[in-house]
Amino acid sequence: MPRRLILHAGPHKTGTSALQAVLRQQSFAAFYYPHTGQWPDGAHHNLVFSLIPELRRPDAEALEPELLLEQLQAELAAVQHDTLLISSEFLSLGCAARVVAWLVEQGIAQPDGIRALLVEREMRSRAASLYNQAVKDPYVGETRSPQQWLKEEEAKLRFEPMIEDLEAAGLGVEMLAYEPAESLVQRLLMAAGAINRELSVQIPWTNTSMSEAVLMALLKVNRTVSDPQERIEWRNELFN
Known about the structure:
The chain has 240 residues and is of the alpha/beta class. The protein contains 10 helices and 4 strands; from the N terminus they run βαααβαβαααβααα.
């Protein structure tokens, strides 16, 4: 049975981890959040990576599309909800049309009325958080200085191409403001159809940025260490 579809496309560093942590742990009457294709933190990154090979990370648990479909169909066979919510920041990177096309072709999603939720955050604030994450992520292992990184990555921070890509995929795009961050998760859930009594009073904020001292120390590690596991060990030591 094809269902209505909502895509939460992020982008990165707009409160996505906090939202996905709630979605992973809690059920909602208005929509179903599939377990199939989830990353350990609750995002549907593995679903995206299974369908978009060029975006895969080295630590991805990607499935062949046939196996992904088999698992998704088996899960949804026991679900009564008529709306699915899929959440992954990677959907903002130009792949939404291919993911939507696959879901529609396989009879998972209805072709009409697909909605996309996108959060807009002030560019400099988001840039600082993205750089922090790139240094912290052992598989990215960013080595550029903040100034060099911003100069080379600034064009990728713009929201216009994300919106154009989602609209070109036939999605109706709903933009939400990042600020005030304290209410962002609740506002996203309500935009997806959640009701007041389903909303947690306190939302744990996850994946917070490092202090400048730890950031610079880890940047030095990235410049001298290439193995992700060794970077993880250094990161854990610095965080402790």
